[in-house]
Amino acid sequence: MPDRIHYTNCPVCHSASLKPVLNAIDYTVSKESFAVWECQECTLRFTQDVPASAHIGPYYKSEDYISHTNTSRGLINKIYQAVRRRTIRNKRRLIERTTGLSNGHLLDIGCGVGTFLHAMQESGWKVTGLEPDAEARKVAAQLYNLQVQEIDELEKLPAATYDVITLWHVLEHVHQLHDYIEKLKQLLKPGGTLLIAVPNYTSKDAETYGPYWAAYDVPRHLYHFSPASIDRLLAQHAMEVIAHKPMWYDSFYIALLSSKYKNGQSNWIGAAWQGLRSNLKASGEVRRCSSVIYLIRHTAK
């Protein structure tokens, strides 16, 4: 399969100690089944035989892919929109509390239709947004008058420019993982902060739903991170996680989608219970949350 990537070594730690753990279905677009494998060294999971970067575009073509369309169609997406307004406020407060800055230069990679970027700009930040999807960039211009750039512009951005770089559920989509982390490190100002939010397959909701867990989202999600695998990845680039922050709402949204995938329709009461169970499990250990925000800084002097 020349248009597919078959890993014989772990994408994070390069170990050859790999094993298949489950098969997950692409419920959003193709209905294809993809194998998910796990590294026995760093505990990263990854989608095996994933489409190469030049061939993965069609798997994003769905009217229900909300980060690209801003759709409010259907009850789940309406709830998503309402929750997103609250989470954006929380993200802004987290950034300002963590950095001690009320303004500065912020780069948001994979900014979708620009809702978060717009909120930060309204709060006084100088913002730059990158987004691979042309329709999402168009919506950002229409809704917020944001001139979001194509993702290829990442290589042209000036080094040591940004106080904050954010990737909200983006890193799991990036084919060239190590090159990407190194580039982000170069773009940060000295003392700058990188925030990476990704789903966490070690969460209780992932355990509950198994192959139906919606955050596997194959093949768009190339990697399925554990906190240990994030630590291992960043250490190779002289970067360190300084704090973990929970994304409490994600467990409920993911449980709703997961129950739909498993049962053919969303079980609202059951999903609410599973989301609550997941959050209760993570309340004493944020590293078990359904999605985790990693606050990251350089460790190199």
Protein described:
The longest helix is centred in the N-terminal third of the chain and has 25 residues, at 75-99. The mean pLDDT is 93. The protein is 35% helix and 23% strand. A hairpin with a 7-residue loop joins β2 and β3. It has 301 residues and is an alpha/beta fold. The chain starts with a strand and ends with a strand. It contains 9 helices and 12 strands. The strands form 3 sheets. It has a 6-stranded mixed beta sheet with strand order 7-6-8-9-12-11, with helices on both faces. α2 crosses α3 (115-122).
Series of H and E elements: EEEEEHHEHEHEHEHEHEHHE
Cα-atom radius of gyration: 18 Å
Low-confidence stretches: none
Mean model confidence by pLDDT = 93
Helicity, as a percent range: 25-40%
Keywords:
single chain, 301 residues, four-stranded antiparallel β-sheet, alpha/beta, 23% strand
What would you say about this model in short?
The chain is an alpha/beta fold.
Write the layout of secondary structure elements.
Layout: E1 4-5, E2 18-25, E3 33-39, E4 45-47, E5 50-51, H1 66-69, H2 75-99, E6 105-109, H3 115-122, E7 126-130, H4 134-144, E8 162-168, H5 177-187, E9 188-199, H6 204-209, E10 223-224, H7 227-235, E11 239-246, H8 248-263, H9 268-282, E12 291-298
Parallel strand pairs: 6-7, 6-8, 8-9
Antiparallel strand pairs: 1-5, 2-3, 3-4, 4-10, 9-12, 11-12
Helix pairs in contact: 2-3, 2-8, 8-9
